[in-house]
Protein 1
Amino acid sequence: MFYLTEQFFSIQGEGKYAGVPSYFLRTGGCNLNCPGFGAEYEVDGEIRLGCDTYFAVDSSYAKAWIKVDNSDVLISTLKKEFNTIGYNPHIVITGGEPLMYHSDMVFYDVVKWLIDEGIEITFETNGTIEIDFEKYPAYKSCIFALSLKLANSGEPAQKRIVTQALENVQTYAKEAFLKFTIDAQLVESTARDEIQDIQDILPELDVYCMPVGESRDTIWKNDKAVFEFCMKHNFCYSDRLHIRVFDTTQGV
Ligand code: SF4
């Protein structure tokens, strides 16, 4: 059994596949909180800090999440959706942290079905979950967008960097890349050193950097600094197309 917070057809807005029409499955729950990303939201009168997908992270929102306890039901929904779209789009499984559910059999059955249909799957993951690729071989056929968190996330290093989890992805997955969300302040301080520490673990992966921001306004505050940082260090700049186009609207 796992939780979905939303599912929708859109265009991938970030990373290596930015611009590709994609069907999104967003799971509920995360093993991190990332208060440093500074998205403010209110629960029962209390102001909390989190990331731009706090509604898929904070269990206070769980009442609105959809419980998926039968893979056939979700597969049937996906078949109908793809029929309406007219083709089988790239699937992005995001969160929260979707790989919290990697060993859940309902979740795994859906992943296996997608792979058997020849559908490309990208996991948007924080890279902290250790996957046994021999026990769950369908994950070998998936793409891993490793959206690792840096110091600006407000999470301690030992929680956000799990070396074995990263090495497993680099060894077994058919494709993976690194994606960092950074702000102007981090560019001026520890971003380069922090990314280097991660590249020491994952030397083969390309690096994409994108500006912090849950809205157009906050992205505008960081984009130029990140742009120049990428030029200086030979990283790929990734914009956040969905926020540029739709601002803070969810489900697009
Ligand atoms: S790991 Fe990702 S989804 Fe989880 S709290 Fe951090 S930014 Fe949000």
Protein 2
Amino acid sequence: MIEVKFILYLCLSLLLIGFVLSVLYSFTDKNSNSAQKRIEKLLPGINCGQCGYLGCQAYASALANHEAQANLCKPAGADVAKQLSELTGSSLESGQDYEEQLFTPRTVAYIHDEKCTGCGKCKRKCPVDAISGVLKQAHVVDPKECIGCDECVATCPEKCIEMIRQDHTLEHFNWNIHSVQIKSGN
Ligand code: SF4
Ligand code: SF4
Ligand code: SF4
């Protein structure tokens, strides 16, 4: 009789432990799924594989499970890297210029046409024919052609050429870097 009771208690205990474990598992699973969903929403969804994972979903899953760094998705850019680091608990190194790391800094010449006399000196100096214009009329720089060599600036007698920072575009995204630097933990 005692043996039967013992077996009964044992079975009940095992059932109870199994129930508790399954509740705990479903709770953690739900949490990691919702974290993954939030991460996925931040990623570009282009599945390019540059992060080293088989698409955005796989990377999001690795991030949600704290198995990947938050800075591996280059197409997403610096802002998303920051948001991912906050979501996954890693911190950004202070003073780090993430835009500079992700995009090759680029400046192009810009002519302030109200001062330009159309002398043509800059046009003759430009090694890539990025400047157009006819004599005695304001000249203009094609920012797509300009290589930022700076040669035209000193040539201009009117001092009306300025090197300006070009807005970031994917055309001059720095494809050669591995990642931006984010240190984990705080
Ligand atoms: S690098 Fe970014 S966009 Fe490309 S697959 Fe990875 S997460 Fe997706
Ligand atoms: S910076 Fe160089 S490439 Fe650009 S317009 Fe001036 S001379 Fe031409
Ligand atoms: S050198 Fe200066 S003034 Fe002459 S065309 Fe070029 S921008 Fe205009």
Protein 3
Amino acid sequence: MTILVVGNMGYVGPVLVQHLRQAYPQAVLIGYDAGLFAHCLLGAVALPEIMLDRQIFGDVRHLDKTMLEGVDVVVNLAAISNDPIGNRFEDATLAINYTAAVELAAKAKQAGVHSYVFASSCSVYGCAEEGAKTESSTLDPLTAYARSKVMAEKKLIPMADERFTVTCLRFATACGMSDRLRLDLVLNDFVAGALTQKKIVVMSDGTPWRPLINVKDMARAIDWAIGRKATNGGKGLVVNVGSNEWNCQVKDLAHAVAAAIPGVDISINTNAPPDKRSYRVSYDLFKELAPGFQPRFDLKSTILEMTDGLQKAGFQNAAYRESQFMRLNVINKFREQGLLDEKLRLSFGNG
Ligand SMILES: NC(=O)c1ccc[n+]([C@@H]2O[C@H](COP(=O)([O-])OP(=O)(O)OC[C@H]3O[C@@H](n4cnc5c(N)ncnc54)[C@H](O)[C@@H]3O)[C@@H](O)[C@H]2O)c1
């Protein structure tokens, strides 16, 4: 089996590649990425990409179809992956997260790829506090990022047929350790704040609901999607990925971190305007379709994993919100240096 992981050099990618290498030791694993965050490693004992058979640097908007020859599975993680960047670079976000994702699927289908796995997001539910949202609930994408995921899903699902399975995984917000850690994700931010400043600064009033999933469990869900048969969920499937038990309010996350790390203060911004991005999500369908791939990590074990991982990496940077572990800071730095244009294309053109 040959698996192409597009967008493999971000936060999720290294964890996925490690999982796939263990799960499919004989498989040919190929990575394709623009490399925007390739240098943002934390505590890695080795470059994550050495587990691949091949790493290609390139822009997903210009992925040459010859790269899909002989490929059985495409996992598409490539994206402008958060709201602040998405709002600032809306056109690029739609071009990468939506147009390129659909074009990649079309090229893959034509090349004879039989499974396309797309990393979508539960943020498509937007403002959804009354009851848990299911896959058939109304969507309310509030940001360019969330809109790009809705638009992509809508075009991808009808592309599925007997020979081309499409699985859109609507992931909860990720957390947990990765060789390319992101600290712009809520739980990761809280653990970093607790360890380095003895303080958790909650930007909102703490009331928004935010379901979470450990990045290792995301990798297992992708593994399930790779092997999924059309008889299990249909040729084209959209499914929420996370666990019902892990629908938490942001303030509960802060309290859980403070309970695990002694001497930590929590500062909640009671004057913050209400954060409309608040959703509770039902993961019943995922439970039904993928009983052997349910999340293993919970809030407590993930906080422990992160505390341990950050301490082992010697992470002490109290100014981490200014660091390269926030995706927007890296993009801004590239822009300042003139290396990235308004469309978020690298000026030295790796594709
Ligand atoms: N992290 C989360 O909480 C979360 C939750 C739900 C869904 N997702 C989705 O999972 C996927 C992976 O998320 P992540 O946290 O690893 O994001 P990330 O930002 O860490 O990684 C994204 C990767 O895509 C690459 N990329 C961006 N633009 C590209 C382009 N034009 N051409 C080629 N590569 C490009 C980047 O270089 C990076 O390596 C994304 O699609 C994201 O939307 C993530």
Protein 4
Amino acid sequence: MLRGLGLGLLSTLAFGCVGEIVGGPVNTEEQTPEQLVAIKAWTDNAEPALRNACVSCHASQLNINFLPGEGLAMREALLAWAPAVVNLDAPSSSRILTKGPHSGPAFASDKIPLVLDWIQKEKIAAGSLEEEIILESPAVRPQLCTGGVPGDLTCPINTIPLDSMGLVGATITFVAQPTESALYLQRITLNPGPSGAYIEHPLFVTFPTGVEPKPDTLDRYFNVKLNLAAGAAPAMIQGGAAVFVGFSALDDIRIHFKAVDVFQAEDTGPGTDPGAAAGCKVLESFKANARGLLQTSCASCHANPANVASSAVSMIGLDSPDDLVLKQACDQILLRTNRQDIPNSSIFLAPAPTNANHPFRFADAGQLEAFRTPVSLWITDERDAP
Ligand code: HEC
Ligand code: HEC
């Protein structure tokens, strides 16, 4: 069994019968005082805000109907929606607040505090349930990479052990570099221990001294599930690289999880970032928008088996006329993209003019943009492909 702060648990234990009481008075006997506070914030503020701006599409459209029904039934469905759009572990990172303009509008800035206030109250209500288990890794103060390749004395690999959560011998490792207002982590990797490893929804949190801990503002790994058998190769988490805005190298990092466990034998397949697992789906878009630019700027190293670059990211096959061979290159490159946050894909961060640790850099921001804009069209197509 998986352990964790499951919203499924919440919805069965705490909200058991509320689904039937649509918008009406609440049966106080079933609710803790904290839950009543959360329900009031929902009814008075959060639901009206969502109803005005979001329900027109999110009540019924397939795969995004996280606001079905009304009243408390809507609240229950929204809290239980997977992949989570409300994150009780990190309320302000909740995707309903951070989504921004998309096919629908961004939340109006005066509505965000109302909905955030509701989520914070839900967090307190959830905390008042005895069943909650917080899954939090030990703290690690990142050691910085100042040059060389990962593993060099000048480029230490940071290790967060997962033993305290029951995963003896398993770790998450990464290489860290500071940027002006952020921490750039690379090679974020899950290493299964002797029991294998299953993790769900890791959330990076920074702990500045004297103030509240700050979670990843994007909640970027909201849909990550990794399931590695004992002895399996370590797996990078969503391409392995990410920029954590507001994180400082001077502060500790911990990782929160929705679930941590030994390898789940009944789970289907290796389990990973779902988008990447399936590989490239839109090879035509890859050919039209990305292949030529990758060929020009990256292939001399990354498609050359004699160059270590090809073991970091293999682009071997990029120039092949055979679609099956080309797809292998495309699959490898796709693993280094971040479809939730496209500009922060590794393939754009690595060759950025400011990244001193990659052998090739675009000369300036304009050149990076000339690469990033067309290649992003392909990543967008991969993200939106059925
Ligand atoms: C005109 C239709 C429309 C409206 C209105 C709309 N959305 Fe969306 N929303 C979409 C579509 C289509 C998607 C799926 C594609 C995407 O992720 O951009 C989506 C996706 C999302 C997702 C990601 C869902 C997931 O599971 O990945 C979130 C979060 C979201 N919307 C929040 C909102 C919020 C908050 C509002 C109101 C302020 C809103 N949307 C209003 C059409 C809409
Ligand atoms: C001059 C050779 C060279 C060129 C050109 C080059 N790279 Fe690299 N790249 C490397 C090497 C070497 C590594 C492995 C470094 C290491 O082991 O960390 C690497 C690593 C990477 C990584 C992985 C970084 C990580 O987080 O582990 C990415 C992503 C990447 N390159 C993308 C690109 C892209 C995109 C281009 C083209 C725009 C490009 N590279 C062009 C040499 C090159």
